[in-house]
Amino acid sequence: MKVKDSTVNIEALHPKMKDRLTDIETIYTSFHTELVITSGKDGVHSQHSLHYEGKAVDLRTWNILDSVIQALKTKLGPEYDVILEKDHIHVEWDPEG
């Protein structure tokens, strides 16, 4: 697992998000793809984004298959949203939906 660059903050993630990074990395590895986190508790996002609470990460989508997204949804379960955006996968811990 690596981060895009030094601006990416995964140290300040909420424990419920940070604890799942290993699961996310395992899925990427099983598909022979390197996990690159492009945003954590950093960057500019929509006003009510869970990034600001440390409850979301963005993942690089280079060489990502639909099966990776499905595997993430299955492994992380219903408390986590996995959303394919235009240029990244957004994963957030949102137990209240």
What does this structure look like?
This protein is α+β, with helices and mostly antiparallel strands and 97 residues long. It has one domain: Muramoyl-pentapeptide Carboxypeptidase, domain 2, CATH 3.30.1380. A five-stranded mixed beta sheet has the order 1-2-3-5-4, covered by helices on one side. The longest helix is centred in the last third of the chain and has 11 residues. The model has no long low-confidence stretch (mean pLDDT 93). The N and C termini lie far apart (27 Å). Helix 2 packs antiparallel against helix 3. Strand 4 and strand 5 form a beta hairpin. It is 26% helix and 21% strand.
Oligomer: single chain
Number of domains: 1
Query: What share of residues are in beta strands?
Result: 15-25%
| Average pLDDT number | 93
What value does the Rg take, in angstroms?
A: 12 Å
